[in-house]
Amino acid sequence: MTATPQSEAPTSHTASQEHQISPSMSKGITLGLARITQLLNTLGNPHLAVPIIHVAGTNGKGSVCAYIDSILRASSLKVGRFTSPHLVHVRDSITLQGKPLSESEYLSAHTKVEDANKKHDVQASPFELLAATAFQSFKDADPPLDLAVVEVGMGGSTDATNVCPRPLVTAITSVDMDHQAFLGNTVQEIATVKAGIIKQGRPCILAPQAHAEATEAVRNVARRLEAPLLEISATSTSSTTTHLSFCNQPLEVKLPLLGSYQAANATTAVAAVEALLQTVDASKAGCITAETVKIGLESTRWPGRLDCIEYQGINMLLDGAHNPASIDELANYLKSLSPKNTTFILALSSPRDPLALLKPLVSALSGQEITVMATNFSQPEGMPWVSAVDPSEVAKAAQSLGIQAQVTQNVKEALSLVKNLPDRQIVICGSLYLVADTYRLLESLQEV
Q1: pLDDT tens readout for residues 249-269
Q2: What is the pTM of this model?
Q3: Residue 17 burial (CB < 10 Å; 0-12/13-18/19+)?
Q4: Residue 117 is inside which H or E element, if any?
Q5: Element (H, E) at 253
């Protein structure tokens, strides 16, 4: 890890001018801080009750949040976490001490938020209501929380989570092309928006970047805000062990999350925790040791990312990969496995180009028999703006690559069709919403 000097004086224009993007609306997505600020104010500003670590990025931010959360809980701290989108149920996006909110906890906080929204005619968006529910849950937690880990929903500067004025630490994971309609048409523009979570004088951790322009964009923002910036270098890893350090103490860790990219995510999380030692009081900092960091990393759970599960005798790999960068990571992982015929059960959130996601997968499995089951996912709760790409478009894209493909109504139908196919791996990917449908299917079977 190397620290970037922050000696250059800030420029005369303000950070808000640099980061500001016009509030946008498309399919129910409305960016901006005016409504969430008004809503939280009517609730007594619950977002100020618990200090936070704030994490933005294109890929890996959920994993980084999960690692940080697990490390802090292994260090005997009481921790809340907000990540999005939710997986199986809307309340699983908010956790207290590693457990999703109970139904009663969720309803208690959400009712307060809904009532305030209606009483004061805030007209908050669904995501703003959920973010406010998370902050209210953190405030109401019993026993009280020491801190919370908060993942940006989209972008950074105008994301509803970016209302906390003084996060203890910020972290920015790998930045790539995604959500261009809202964040910008270049990696530099997108990185600048994501760097909008950086705050004056507060430490920021920057994960390894594939694009130099992303690194430079974050450096510029950190320099202007006089925020100490720690840039993470490549991490040494083997098939079983990741080598990193905490406070100059070397650690060998067996990461529970699959994928070579998890080494960078884990190192980013550890760096954020190390930076935290400089911004929290001594009573909390003293709980965090190299041993608790190792325990926390090795006990991290983060479903939906390279998750191997079994369904009625079918071995499946579930991965929420949904943009070119994350699909490349999935392709690299599949390439590392023993050659095997593969069926992809695939659904994409609109707007996505099916060819952009299919080509890396086909290339990674060159010489193997590939089939595609193009399908839908169910409407995620509280997210009316989300819709699936027409499965027939996905199937046509696969066929244009010479891949056999067919359309199915849902993941249950797709799995029924692949159940008896011999000697092949089943990969469910393209959208976390599709992965969530699979988990719900498994849950329903367990309840029978």
Answers
A1: 999 999 999 888 899 999 999
A2: 0.84
A3: exposed
A4: helix 103-119
A5: strand 249-253
